[in-house]
């Protein structure tokens, strides 16, 4: 099956007067048509910067793509003109942004904000745009009579449904969802995730699902990539990574999750803090926090090892290496 998205050796820096922040460092990812990939990592790992790179919305200045390729259906988006990027966003690739509470214009009626997407991209009449918006709103569980309401009249869960509607209006081939359930309570979160799974199947979309929640990714995605300090450190199917994690960082993440069957007075935690992107360590970026580091880890950056289930660790093929 063909790749709808392929990222090769992507490097993104934020350049300020004082520092160069190396936010993304050699990311390689593939998403096939109809597949969903979860991108997991701590805050500051580079997940959102990777997503913004795909839709060419890195704030410039201070951000810049300094190396790599982003291929959408075989075309390198980095070479796009701004006109081509505007046409791509919404039509080919759509994004659900992080915070549903602030992503909508507070002084525009919700229906008008949605209709504007169709009028801009599909060049349809206002009447036709309204009809299409109403149909899709009802598909995601928002009644037609809410068309003229303002964002402040919607709950968090309903705002998230509106944003999903906005992302789906032009039938994108690739949907990027950046922590779409972060601000929602658990019950609403489950409803939104189930809705997204149904819509992905209905519209035959590929999806990049960004989250820091391993449980949410397990429910939503086919494959998962673990990100640390701007690098992909492990990637494989959800089953492979969840049942047999190879990288010490991934193993630490799973050990940090509370388990009902375990009676522990204190939760496990990975020692130290994530590497500072303004002064990344030599060698493996994770080595200052790794209990099993060797001399090679402090001086030489590891390469991805494995065939389908890949891990960026000098010792990832050795079963005895554990966190």
Question: What's a quick, concise take on this entry?
Answer:
This protein is 32% helix and 23% strand. The protein is α/β, with parallel strands linked by helices and 323 residues long.
Strand and helix layout:
Elements: E1 3-15, E2 20-32, E3 36-40, H1 47-54, E4 63-72, E5 75-76, H2 82-91, E6 93-96, H3 110-122, H4 126-139, H5 156-168, E7 174-178, H6 186-203, E8 206-211, H7 214-220, E9 223-228, E10 231-237, H8 238-243, H9 248-255, H10 295-299, E11 310-311
Parallel strand pairs: 3-8, 3-9, 6-7, 7-8
Antiparallel strand pairs: 1-2, 1-4, 4-5, 9-10, 10-11
Organism: Paenibacillus sp. SYP-B3998
EC number: 7.2.2.11
Enzyme class: translocase
Write out the CATH superfamily name of the largest domain.
P-loop containing nucleotide triphosphate hydrolases
What global shape is seen?
globular
Q: Give me the strand/helix succession.
A: EEEHEEHEHHHEHEHEEHHHE
Tell me the domain tally: 2
User: CATH topology of the largest domain, what is it called?
Assistant: Rossmann fold
Q: Structural class, please?
A: alpha/beta
Keywords: ATP-binding, Cell membrane, Ion transport, Membrane, Nickel, Nickel transport, Nucleotide-binding, Translocase, Transport
Domain ABC transporter: 7-254
Membrane topology: Peripheral membrane protein
Main location: membrane
